[in-house]
Amino acid sequence: MELFADRAEAGESLAGRLEGAHDPVVLALPRGGVAVAEPIARRLGAPLDVLVTRKIGYPPSPELGVGAIAEGGEPVFDHTLLRRLGMTPESVADVVEDERHELARRVRAYRGDRPPPALEGREVIVVDDGLATGGTARAALRAVRAARPAKVTLAVPVGARETVESLRREADEVVVLRTPVDFRAVGQWYAHFDQLSDADVLELLGKAAG
To answer: Where is the Phosphoribosyltransferase domain (predicted)?
Structure first.
């Protein structure tokens, strides 16, 4: 299967599938999702902002996500995994609190004193650079849903097939370009998948703001 050259090319391709959106707000999951979302917002003539999310890691092995939290939302846990690990949401309360602080720091870094966009009654497009387990995307979609938008669309270039199907229950529409059978990691589907910095995110948001 052909690779995306980079996140910008993936965003251009996604934009063509989203042109029917009516006066949308585009929300990107930082950091990688912002690079995908910028060309989408430009093509649609839509405002672009971030929706900050944080993974809730398993304390002995933090790279293993047992849940996630999004700006404006409550923690969303993988209860099946927690049970398998012999844990409960209360077991990771300290991790959740730490991630709330980091989430707030990133919101300040990306948005400063600017208020988040009003979503009630609007069409909202949530964008990320790919879906592996889908934990952060699920938390993001639930946080958006709580703001009572008219429609919620999740748009990603590539995702694990099972994850994509599970997230169809969280969004009104899921737009995904590729669901490869041999999906292992998001980065394997990009020729260039550089890690972005906070400065890169701010530059892309400034570019979108014109």
So the answer is: 20-173
